[in-house]
Amino acid sequence: MKANKEYILEMLKASKRLDGRALDEMRPIKIEIGISENAEGSARVTIGDTVVLAGVKMATAEPYSDSPDKGVMTTSAEFMPCASHKFEGGRPGEVEVELARVVDRGIRGSECLDFEKLCITPGEKVWLSFLDILVLDHDGNLIDAAGIAAAAAFLDAKFPALDSEGKVDRSVPLTDKKLPMAGIPLAITVRKINGVLMLDTTEAEEEAVGARVTITTKDNGNITSIQMGGIGGFTDAEISEAAKITEKTAKKLRDGAFKKAF
Amino acid sequence: MENEKTVKEQLEERDADTSTPSNDGTKIVFTGDEIASGMDILPGFGTYRNGEKIYSKYVGLIRTGDRVVSVIPLKGVYMPRVRDYIIAEITGVTFSNWTCNINSPYDAAMSPMDVREYIDRGEDISKYYTTGDLLLVKVTAVTKSKYINVGTKDPRCRKLVDGLVANIAPSKVPRLIGKAGSMINMIKDRTGCMISVGQNGLVWLRGEKETIAADCIKIVDEFAHTSGLTDRVSEYLDKKIGKVNPAAIQTESEETAGDGSNE
Amino acid sequence: MSEKKSGKRPDGRAYNDMRPVKMQVGVLKHANGSAYVEFGKTHVYASVHGPKKVHPRHMEDGEKAILRCRYNMIPFSVNDRKRPGYDRRSVEIAKVISEALQPMVFLEEFPKSAIDIDLEITQADAGTRVAALTAASLALADAGIPMRDLVAAVAAGRANGEILLDLTKEEEDAKDAVDMPVAMTHRDNKVMLLQMDGDMSREDLNQMLIVAKEGCAELAKMQKAALREKYKVE
Do A7 and B134 touch (CB under 8 A)? Predict the structure, then answer.
């Protein structure tokens, strides 16, 4: 509704938000792990009214010829029709593909997941990990929620057992061996309108606010992935400021919601 | 005053067949529940008859009159009814009419014949109302297959400029108004906001404390089925803006009346 | 049929016991109505959007609303990852669920509109379609959609020569296993969904209908309780 978009923009001029939060304040975050018995690792992340599930499933496969001693990861994201009347289901659209790619690159770039340890026999057999992200309820800030859920699902994940032929054996429980995930890569998105930077936007805010930049940092604070999106653009000073905000926010999450969950 | 009239109409038009709630409005029945038996009782809104018995169509509050039993659903979409006052957003303009989103499964059409302004033939009607405009309109016609016409000829209709739109389940609008307007007037007085309540569940708010008023509407939406609703909202207002300051209310409500009433 | 012989089944249930059931209404904020249901290790979210405008427009019915249903198993709901997207099984299940619910809804009150039900199986351990249908019925009621009655659904079946209620995956894997999903209305126990594949006698069928009826009656109570819980007055 146009009236509400204009209202949100008007409020932002005075650095105020509809729900009374500060610009750099996240909504309450809850991370629940091990929510699915049939996944090797899984998590449900709730940010305000946004709910995202992530799950990791493992299989074995031949390695790519250019990296014979490395495991493989594929990431998919789906926006469930239950999450919003705007989602129809079916083939993933460009927004879903971008979300999956940003989360995927965030994990890869951070090198938190050790792909070499996902090798079983070099050149012959490696672990293939499927990361699936599912948006169950959409009230904005999907990238951050998905990134948090993905990191939590990998931290929760354990290897399945292999049978004598080297295939995954589903007749026995998972092993006690954790996936080689060291650290928590976190993608945090900053949105901008009228020169004002803000965190953790709701769906109503996202309808009004155009440009965004998602910055993934790893535990030592280094940046491992950046993705700009939306319409509008940033100044260089704003990008620097965004990097500062995202690092601080990611640290707060690692020390807060993640500590609580693990 | 705008909303006092709304209340009267609410009571007359909407609840004509439902007298006072049986149990302070808090008796909840469930879809498929048997709520009455006997041919001398008539199935009112939200109910259906099967043989001797009357069943509920909804999860809702039961209202029993002398001869009629009804169920007021706790949720649901807005279904347009002639003479409803609703808030509409213009979503499209053609040569000969406007299309409006009315928070319903159905769009409404508004013809230049049905607006207050005199519009010459062939004139560009988007000069008067255009996409994104918010209006308080009256439903003038509803066909069986749900073609909806709205208009602004009624003196209470007007354009709503600036402000914020909040949502409430359409079935809970009477609770938001309250007995003789008690609830809505309390929110208006305490927040100093201008408020227009559409029977389609859209509520337009403008004033210094719109977000507090919007929170009050959220409370009504969430707790409409409970008793002590006025106290709950009043406590929230006490917490947010402190106790009543009579001087402030005086000036603010005059402004509200000036803008809100066309009578 | 009501005395319970306990300890018979791998998880200690009697033949006519349900697995632990959990039901919650209004779990998703952006749907008009929603529910979350667990039958043991089978977990499902149901949402209802609508009545709303129909896209694509040519599906519109001038006389009544159309009820559309999607049934989807999420990739990590099962042991071997399921590829995302539609498959024939999902399409068929969505169809029978939608047909079970259509007669319940006063569709004629909403011409030209669509009511969309989305069913997401987040964890599967047999009985997904009956858990989904039970959740869908709750979500419709939660959305304020006018209905004649609610529907409860459960599977009855046979494993190792025993007639059982609410089979698990393990029980379904028995050699002589028969699985028969049944949906019934709350008031009249009218059968709204019935499927079976296998080999069984008419006596088996009658016995299964008896345990299914008991199961549905039990579920009906829980559905009402879940709806009541949402509107509980503190």
Answer: no
